[in-house]
């Protein structure tokens, strides 16, 4: 009978999540995860064929945490859903800087979370038809840029200031799109 597996894949992902949350993606290695679990690297590679597979599992887990933050903001119903998603995006950058960088500001082998993120936002876009992607691209560039500036410490903004900036940009693009459509 083979020995019972003591370290499960979920334990490894949780350890990797904590590592990335505390120290950033650069700290993610089989040895660092194993050290966190007080084991050898053998369980890591018994559960994941390689580090890329573990990184993909961590990307999925971080994206799930990001979606929880988005859903929490949406459920508040304090603002239209499109704006709420943008606010949650920036708040996630402020509250979870290493996870945000890992998810949205680093090169990864899979871009599934980016596609899901883009698709979900695009569905909330108030502009229909062919211009929806252009409208959303402009807004996403603005929101991501704002998140990056806040994350890097180059801008210190309150939630109210962020909300006002998003509203101003949204209003500008929305009315520009409406005028272009006529």
Task: Walk me through the structure.
With 182 residues, the protein is mainly α. It has 2 domains: 48 residues, Arc Repressor Mutant, subunit A; 120 residues, Tetracycline Repressor, domain 2 (Orthogonal Bundle), CATH 1.10.357. The protein is built from 9 helices and no strands. The radius of gyration is 19 Å and the shape is elongated. The N and C termini lie far apart (74 Å). The model has no long low-confidence stretch (mean pLDDT 87).
Number of domains: 2
Query: Could you say what the CATH architecture of the largest domain is?
Result: Orthogonal Bundle
Q: Largest sheet, if any? A: none
**SS-based class:** mainly alpha
Please give the radius of gyration in angstroms. 19 Å
Order of helices and strands: HHHHHHHHH
Shape label: elongated
In whole angstroms, how far apart are the ends? 74 Å
- The CATH topology of the largest domain is what? Tetracycline Repressor, domain 2
Core attributes:
9 helices; 2 domains; 182 residues; mainly alpha; Arc Repressor Mutant, subunit A; Tetracycline Repressor, domain 2
């Amino acid at each position: 009978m083979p020995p019972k597996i003591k370290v499960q894949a979920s334990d490894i992902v949780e350890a990797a999540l904590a590592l990335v949350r505390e120290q950033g993606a650069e700290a993610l290695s089989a040895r660092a995860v194993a050290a966190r679990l007080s084991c050898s690297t053998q369980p890591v590679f018994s559960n994941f064929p390689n580090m890329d597979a573990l990184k993909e599992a961590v990307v999925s887990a971080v994206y799930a945490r990001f979606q929880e933050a988005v859903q929490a903001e949406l459920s508040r119903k304090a603002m239209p859903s499109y704006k709420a998603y943008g606010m949650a995006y920036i708040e996630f950058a402020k509250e979870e800087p290493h996870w945000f960088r890992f998810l949205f500001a680093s090169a990864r082998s899979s871009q599934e979370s980016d596609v899901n993120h883009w698709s979900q936002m695009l569905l909330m876009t108030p502009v229909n038809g062919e211009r929806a992607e252009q409208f959303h691209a402009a807004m996403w560039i603005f929101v991501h840029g704002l998140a990056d500036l806040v994350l890097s410490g180059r801008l210190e903004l309150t939630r109210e200031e962020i909300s006002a900036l998003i509203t101003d940009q949204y209003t500008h693009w929305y009315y520009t799109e409406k005028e272009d459509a006529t």
